Amino acid sequence: MILQAIALALSAAALHATWNVRLKAAGDPLSVATRATVASAVSVAPLGCLIWLLTGRPGIPAGVWGLVVLSAMGELAYYIFLSAGYRRAEISHIYPVARGTAPVLAVLAGLGLGERLQWAGYLGVVLVLAGLLAIRPPRGAGSATIFAVLTGVCIAWYSTVDSIGVQHVQPWLYGWAIWTGAALFATAWVCGANWRRRRQAGNSSSRNAEDAQHRSWRAALAMGTLMALPYLLVLQALSWAPLMVVAPVRESAIVLVTVWSVLRLGERDRVGWRLGGAAAVVAGIALLAV
Question: Considering its fold, how many domains does the chain have in total?
Fold first, then answer.
């Protein structure tokens, strides 16, 4: 099932690249990501309940619920750090660093879980690291690189947790539980942040801004679908193949985002280094998947 898992991971990469480009264009990435997660979680709930009933009402073992919470918390941290990075720097810097850091950390986690890495995998790690070094921070990026690396840490965090969870429960049920938990955690975080912002502002301006953010739930649902579908595809792939195969392959979205940022977003600063670094990262990812 390795080839099928790689196909799912590649499909997830294309979808993931699409919603990240759209998120970068948003004025408030964290609020947009939260609305999208909530919209998709609410809309899929009836279908999830129906499937749950038709499949004999499967349960999640008590021990797996802890993994669900850990993964949902990792998703929340991922949204927070990714949004912070997108507010501070170009996507052609943030996305490759975040997604390139994750496979290396995932490989280390996989080794810790008893998985084995061939010589090509070690060469792949070297290429990924070299590519990341080539993608130097743009002028004025400041703390953006730190947030990008922290995003990569979060990816490795929930990927490792999920690779364990899907071995004990059906991927669709596990993913549904995590997505619902992530929606709840993200909503609580954003509501708390908005309350603190209104309290500090002392006027209605922040409330008006918040109201404006909640106008288009149809767009939020479309974004939420783009976010949830690749996650479910990856969970299914993890049930068929080891973490050190799935996690690196899905990061092939790096080259898609980098090329898009250059061609459509006009991010031309050090374009040669960025494209070369992205290519090196993808080459390393391919070796990691061997």
Answer: 1
